[in-house]
Amino acid sequence: MAKKIQFILNGNTVEVMVGETELLVDVLRDKFRLTGTKKACGTGDCGACTVLLNKEAVRSCIILAPMVDGKEVLTIEGLGDEKNVHPIQQAFVDAGAVQCGYCTPAMILTAKAVLDINHDPSDEEIKTALSGNLCRCTGYSKIFQAVKNAAKAMNLKR
Amino acid sequence: MKSGYQIVGKRVNRVDALAKALGKAKFTSDFKRQDMLIGKALFAKFPHAIIKGVDTAKAEQLEGVQAVLTAKDLPGRNGYGILVPDKPVIAEKKTKYEGDAVALVAAVSEEIAKKALGLIEVEYEVLPAYDDPRQAMKDDAIHIHEAHPAADKGNILTTVALDSGDVEKAFREADIIIENSYETPMVDHAYMETDVCMAEPDPLTGGLTLCSPQQAVYATKRCLAPVFGIPQNKIRTFCPIVGGGFGGKEDSVLDVSAMAGVLALKTKRPVYFELDREEVFRTTGKRHATYIKHRMAATKDGKITAVDVETILDKGAYTSMGGLNNPLMAVTQRTAMYAGGTYFIPNARARSHSVFTNHPYSCAFRGFGAPQAMFAVECQIDELAKALNMDPIELRLKNILRHGDRTIFGQVMKENRGLGLEECITKVKGRMDWDKSLDQGNGPVKKGKGIAVFMYGTGIPLLFEGASCYVNLELDGSVSVAVAATEMGQGIVTALTQTAAEALGVRYEDVNVTYSDTATAPDCGPTVGSRAAVVVGNAVLDGCNKLRERMLSVASKEFKKDPRDMDIKQGEVFIVGKPETTMPLAAIVSKAFITQVPLAAVGTWYPPQPSFRAEDGQGEPMHAYTFGVQAVEVEVDTETGELSVTRSVLACDVGKAINPSLVEGQMEGGAAMGIGWAILEEGFMNKGVMENASFHNFLIPTIKDLPELESIIVEHPNDLGPYGAKGIGEPPLIATAPAIRNAVCNALGISINTIPLTAVRILAAVKNQQAVGGGN
């Protein structure tokens, strides 16, 4: 049965008809054309579909769309754009943390979730936060450095 | 060698980094349209079986189904492959692995397509499935291919031979012989972007357009034209940026494109065909598993005198890039070629057998056979060092290839092509504090350090080598470069942008490189073999140099100066020594435009013609070799078997780093992938069925499995490379696994010769040692 849900998507209130078993990732990609959210495993293992649900990092490939009714969803498209690049996005660019880019949006959103609540994370805390996001290209070294740099840049802005 | 570059060698940000970080960079699946049919395959229920019958009647009647295809419904040849067309689009008489499609469906939605698959009835007669090539190569084994177009004998696809010197004599006269067996696993590339193809018939030409993430747009259309029954010039193959390839997307693209293409031709509609992650694991190519017997002869003072190596490769069900007798230069051959490692060894014999099994086809995977071969030889060197009570680095330095030395495959090493191995070893030794012993403490956790070295040739000679590209000057002074190479994360577009900007003397921002589209660029060969920055880079350099000469000739008339006295930098043309006399390049280009000077050039480059003899594996195949050294420190818990890699230092001689940041990216990513191969990754196959076809149990490294990955770039220029560059895509992972294995042996005092070094495997070895009371 289709059902109408309402939620805040990247700062705007939206309404959409969804099936009971429809996945959040498919709704974001197919109905809202927000393709920055990637579907790479479909089983919640790789983290590439990460979005922020009420500011918490979740895997949108194992979240049913009706579950976001009344909640707040942030995708990579809502984080920044060319005129207003988020410090984490800029840090990824500057540190050479982007290679193929398939895991990048999710990696950035996961970093945002931790940096918003922990302004001075330890190395271990950063690694724990990112440990659910797979990257096959970088070996994570430059991603780790980017998140550390981003934490500093965000603190300067606070 | 010219120095003082404007852009080459600089850590400029990637051209695509911001769009990717913003989530706006589009991959193939992001272009999916609502009007596309959804294609799906019914894959084999049994990996090895005779197909007795396929009944599609119920599926065809389902509303929303637009086509159901079996082998009898295909428009052209039911076979394709990069080297030999032995893989069917749809299996007809037999299934040979669980990735064989037995029927295809196109429907108006994914839900209906999946439902239709469930309605197809297939009758099988199940045959015993082969997991082990050593069983499959026996005389009484069932032939997996009843009649293979190229196989040597039974399930043996090919046996590659390499011979030099007098091996029997060397072993007779040896002071010491080291003999061991090694095994390496079949693993998945695990690129993050799954395989997908959008196929669309072109009613204007009667042709077909195929958009699919891949590494070789020209090879794809050449391989698939007979499948579609369409000439190559009416097939357009292209892709946007690719989410990782690592060699796998040279082959998997053929699978999804063949299936999407035949459905599109049948329905005359655009078709979207995507594999889910489980299907990627079960159906696409893998790294060849190997079983290696390695004998090494040496003198008592540590000079290696001979190697004798037999390698059996798990070919899986189809040839792919495994290799044939002709063309020879593929994975099977590389395992023989690199069986002597980076050492001067006057006598060598290697036999590599590629054997069909009922596993996913083994294909190209970062390193192309070299990681397997180097694993064995680098373990052997450490065993020799142990036997001679010699330091492993000292032993390696005694034997490494130097200027004028001949490899076991007959190539003479030349300093002018870059021979930086010794510098790599010295630098890693210093960084690691190699001679300082580790504090072992008294607990169950033992520490160890290990090292391994490698060499790897740039390019794919004797398969295809050479590149063409287009370079075009625009009237505003900007530059368009079109290459058919793929941007899959390695940063080739950025590296070529830097190469073109340097050559033409324009700003980095003023160059735009388009890529991976047969409609816009000529063939530059596949983006494989660590070749693109070098081989395609040289083609771009050639095109830019042609245009530069033309523009300087135009400028010389304006300035009334000899073109040789003029230069272009930062988009300004000037007289050398008189920087005040500048004119914008745009003005010169406009002048050229109205004075009948062409603004477009085709850049080309071919390496020196390679030589190679199939009968004894001797020749000079590659024009240059990348060298490197990996050292690690590990901690092994002798109570749980848990292994941690706590330090990783990798040095690579890359000739010249066009962009050090990109080179480090390859080195760090390679080391990480090497660590995964060494300690985590393994496809568990049970009678042809993959038992861990998900990221839940096929484990690749997370950020928590890796130490900080330290990289040291060494630059011994290759005089034929663009600005001195050599290939760096594949090499960084080659020495990682043996370095880790050697470190584990160093920690435990026992030898484990099978990877991955999982806790189960380590614990078993520790228990075994305790049981026999051996070890030290």
Class by alpha and beta content of chain A = alpha+beta
Strand content of chain A: 15-25%
Overall CATH class of the largest domain in chain B: Alpha Beta
**Most extensive chain interface and residues per partner:** A-B, 55 and 55 residues
Output the number of helix runs of chain A: 5
What is the overall pLDDT average of chain A?
Answer: 97
Which architecture of the largest domain in chain B would the CATH scheme give at its second level?
2-Layer Sandwich
CATH class of the largest domain in chain A: Alpha Beta
Average of per-residue pLDDT values of chain B: 96
| Shape annotation of chain B | globular
Quaternary organisation of the protein chains: heterodimer
Could you tell me the radius of gyration of chain B in angstroms? 27 Å
Tally of discrete structural domains of chain A: 2
Structural class of chain B: alpha+beta
Q: How many DSSP helices of chain B?
A: 18
A few lines on this structure:
The complex is a heterodimer of chains A (158) and B (776). With 158 residues, chain A is α+β, with helices and mostly antiparallel strands. Chain A is built from five helices and five strands, in the order E-E-H-E-E-E-H-H-H-H.
Characterise the protein shown here:
The complex is a heterodimer of chains A (158) and B (776). Chain A is α+β, with helices and mostly antiparallel strands and 158 residues long. In chain A, 35% of the residues lie in helices and 17% in strands. The longest helix of chain A has 17 residues, at 141-157. In chain A, β3 (50-53) and β4 form a beta hairpin. A five-stranded mixed β-sheet of chain A has the order 2-1-5-3-4, sandwiched between helices. Chain A is globular and about 45 Å long. Chain A is built from five helices and five strands, in the order ββαβββαααα. Chain A folds into two domains: 2-78, Beta-grasp domain (Ubiquitin-like (UB roll), Roll); 87-157, DNA polymerase, domain 1 (Orthogonal Bundle), CATH 1.10.150.120. In chain A, α2 (87-94) packs antiparallel against α5 (141-157) and α3 (104-117) packs across α5. Chain B has 776 residues and is α+β, with helices and mostly antiparallel strands. Chain B folds into three domains: 17-25 and 466-605, Aldehyde oxidase/xanthine dehydrogenase, molybdopterin binding domain (Aldehyde Oxidoreductase, domain 4), CATH 3.30.365; 32-127 and 189-283, Alpha-Beta Complex (Aldehyde Oxidoreductase, domain 3); 290-407 and 421-460 and 612-772, 2-Layer Sandwich (Aldehyde Oxidoreductase, domain 4). In chain B, 27% of the residues lie in helices and 25% in strands. Chain B has 18 helices and 30 strands. In chain B, strands 3-5-1-12-9-10-11 form a seven-stranded mixed β-sheet, sandwiched between helices. A five-stranded mixed β-sheet of chain B has the order 7-15-14-13-8. In chain B, strands 16-26-27-30 form a four-stranded mixed β-sheet, with helices on both faces. The radius of gyration of chain B is 27 Å and the shape is globular. The two termini of chain B are 52 Å apart. The model of chain B has no long low-confidence stretch (mean pLDDT 96). Chains A and B meet through α2, α3, α4 and α5 of A and α1 and α16 of B.
